[in-house]
Amino acid sequence: MGKRSVQEINASSMADIAFLLLIFFLVTTTMSVDKGLSRRLPPPMPDKKEQKDVEINERNIYVVLINSKNQVLAQGKYVDVANLREDVKKFIRNEGNDPTLPEVLPLSVEIDGRMEQVMTTTNHLISLQNDRGTEYQKYIEVQNELVAAYNEVRDEYSRQKWGVPYSELTDERQSAVQKIYPQKISEAEPKNYGGKK
Fold this sequence. Notes:
The chain is 33% helix and 18% strand. It has 197 residues and is of the alpha/beta class.
């Protein structure tokens, strides 16, 4: 009995099938896209304009530093990131008009078609600075806490005034709340702060 020859498989269409499968998976799969932080940069200064030094009352500035060991220093004290949000909320609101917290000043805001006088800390500023050796994850964690503090302050004001969360307000009311509690986070260029206590 002689050996039977095995027929060759026609592989000419395999490349076409593989190509079609590749296209199918490229079209049907979704790719996760990393989102950055939403920050609006100030417009560039015109060449001929003279820069003026702006004086800011020190009580209106909340300084947050992140060192190379990812330790967070807020207002000169080491803090746990978990406690940062509540500290920032207290700073933004200054409900008792504490002289060590931002100045509480009257602000005229248009709410529901009429002007209202609101006492608030519109001159406050949160200054975030990090070391060149700070881990990106720690930086984002601190950023999230600062933004969350603003979101919660706005939400609490909205619930107190209108009985609904900030997200359910009309665009006009949301704009008014943003004027009362403007998000002011200043980010400085990274420096070498070190990490020693």
